[in-house]
Amino acid sequence: MLILIVDDEKTQRDMLQGFLEKQGYKVLTASGGKEALNLFETAPIQLVLIDHRMDDMNGDEVLEHMRSSSPLVRAIMITAYGNVQTAVKVMQLGADDFLEKPVDLTELLAKIERIATDFSVQEESEKITESIETEELPLELIGSSTKMQELLSLIYRIAPTEWAALIRGETGTGKELMARLIHLIGPRKDGPFIEVNCAAIPENLFESELFGHEKGAFTGAVSKRRGRFELANGGTIFLDEVGELPLHLQAKLLRTLQEKKVTPVGSEKNLDVDARVLTATNKDLKAMVAEGTFREDLFFRLNVLELIVPPLRERREDISELIQFFLEKYASTPISFADQAMAQLVKYQFPGNVRELEHLIQRLVTLVRGNTINVPDLPPEIREKQSTGGLLSERLAEVEKEMIVSALEKHQWVQTKAAEELGISERVLRYKMNKADIKK
């Protein structure tokens, strides 16, 4: 990442430049606004550290020119005159943050590292998007929210490996889609992608389904059949709802993963299998291990890499984009949402996540009269959600409660982690939970 330091004090410039270069960053410096703008036009600068008050131009003027030229540039304002008005103006211009002089170098480095991480996430998620477009992959990825970009960035790093990956998430979040994406951009993309829904296979047929069987191995086995692991040879096997596996079948799956061999039912011969294993669950496997309903050794074998697909309520920014996608997919004639209907829909919690939203749009485009979906067209559970009207204190309390519940659910109700994300102490979190009657 190339950083530009803009400050009319040479001592300050040299100090910051020396410090950042020692951290491995490439740094340019400018003694004023005009020089900074000239450098900005010729060099691929990604982050600017700008002094707020300089002789030729103020820092906010410099930033305004830079943002008009490149809206993607990131900036941190440095000022000796820190106040609320300065902070507000800086944020309105699109700066990431501002620091007061004398600069706390540890704090500055932490802010820069967060911005560098953002660049990496954006770059990796863009590469996945490019892969989907250039290779014409048979799937659609909708969502430009931060959480989705972070997930795509993680997939970009996981896909080239051969290690097992566990995909966690609530029902309807798109776990299968993520598994297919990992396969399609990974080294096994030309091999088969075999999906197994562990919850849908009868217990007495699971071994045969997964490992195959010989003719006559059991009643009804009228011919030889290849198992899913054998079919996935050279590609990927995706075990969906893996938390539904009975214990005695977990032991057989573990043996297959360890030895990379399967023994068809009724056969004495082992078959070598070479398939990458991806699994998914909406259950808490760690809790199941503690309860004794899921083998700990199998959990560690499956959970080499972990992805968490965020629920739709944690990425509400994507809802309107998803709605537009589903409208184009299912509406036979152009249909749009009225502003009030869209606002009401975005507030809904969507316990069924993206799948629930998709089914909702299918229902609405089928039943709506005319070409505009209004609030009365929405289902009662969405239409009758509490209005955003009322006293400010009531609205703030509702928003606070939703944030607390969201943080707790994200961290499996571990209060220390939820409090850390919310920026409050665990004691304050417990007080707010009691006050709002929030229980698991």
Q: Which features does this protein show?
A:
440 residues; alpha/beta; Rossmann fold; Helicase, Ruva Protein, domain 3; 4 domains; five-stranded parallel β-sheet; 19 helices; 14% strand; globular
Q: Could you explain how this protein is built, in words?
A:
This protein has 440 residues and is of the alpha/beta class. The chain has four domains: 2-103, 3-Layer(aba) Sandwich (Rossmann fold); 159-308, Rossmann fold, CATH 3.40.50.300; 312-372, Helicase, Ruva Protein, domain 3 (Orthogonal Bundle); 392-435, Arc Repressor Mutant, subunit A, CATH 1.10.10. It is built from 19 helices and 16 strands. Strands 2-1-3-4-5 form a five-stranded parallel beta sheet, sandwiched between helices. Strands 7-10-13-6-14 form a five-stranded parallel beta sheet. It has a two-stranded antiparallel ribbon with strand order 8-9. Helix 1 (10-22) links the parallel strand 1 (2-6) and strand 2 (26-30). The longest helix is centred in the first third of the chain and has 30 residues, at 105-134. It is globular. 28% of the residues are buried. The model is unreliable at 387-391 (pLDDT under 50).
